[in-house]
Design brief:
About 3% of the residues have low confidence. It is elongated and about 65 Å long. It is mostly helical. It contains 15 helices and no strands.
């Protein structure tokens, strides 16, 4: 049970109130964050604004708010600056701006204050930005770090497997997709990639099984549609 004193502190904490509003009612959270920013909320207010904008899928604006938070935190010598840069990078990726994402993520990782899962997720996001830029060697280094620090995240293993397949390292691809499947067998993207890797490895039965799983899990999603197209290369009775 949470002590009453702690609950009272949380209720009187502008950050707690703003973050709660950002999740429950993003438009109200946005207004609250803007008022708080005008009243000296500094980096924490900008962070809350970024979260509220993210909840509204306004990713470009969210990234700008997180970047403002990071800069203000740096001026204040606040160790949370790296976390805000990481959030900005993630939002830039969601906004379709990988080059800007890389700049933010470089700043997040250069600070040296991110730890564990948070550091792993920043490496994972930077790998995505590097793949978009065609820097496969850089992406591989970041994905190696991501699968170490964010080992429980199936996306890290999925992207590592995909990169290995694209660069012709099928043994690594098979090992990493197995790790992704272990963590998220009901993910259509994971099953689609498992089928792609099995097909390139000459395992037709394994490829079909994985593609059928992707199609079954998410028939109308991109992964399910791609799996259906992959199955269509076989005879009609086999693809059913």
């Amino acid at each position: 049970m949470i002590p009453l004193f702690a609950l009272l502190l949380a209720a009187d904490d502008p950050a707690a109130r703003c973050l709660s509003a950002a999740r429950a009612d993003p438009a109200e959270g946005e207004r609250m964050a803007e008022r708080w920013s005008l009243n000296g909320g500094a980096a924490r207010a900008k962070h809350c604004l970024g979260l509220a904008l993210t909840e509204q899928t306004r990713f470009g604006e969210a990234a700008a708010a997180f970047e403002d938070a990071a800069r203000q935190a740096e001026v204040a010598k606040d160790a949370l600056a790296a976390s805000y840069w990481a959030a900005a990078g993630n939002a830039q990726l969601a906004a379709g701006q990988p080059a800007r994402a890389r700049i933010a993520l470089d700043a997040a990782l250069a600070a040296g204050t991110l730890q564990g899962l948070q550091r792993g997720e920043a490496h994972l996001d930077r790998a995505r930005a590097l793949v978009a830029a065609g820097d496969m060697a850089g992406a591989r280094a970041d994905l190696d770090a991501a699968t170490h620090d964010a080992a429980d995240d199936p996306l890290a293993w999925l992207l590592s497997a995909t990169l290995a397949r694209r660069t012709g390292d099928l043994p690594r691809a098979r090992a990493d997709i197995a790790a992704a499947l272990k963590r998220s067998p009901d993910d259509a993207q994971v099953q689609l990639e498992a089928g792609n890797i099995a097909a390139l490895s000459g395992d037709e039965a394994g490829a079909k099984a994985a593609w059928r799983a992707a199609q079954r899990i998410a028939p109308n999603a991109l992964a399910g549609v791609a799996a259906a197209k992959a199955l269509a290369q076989f005879d009609g009775d086999q693809a059913k």
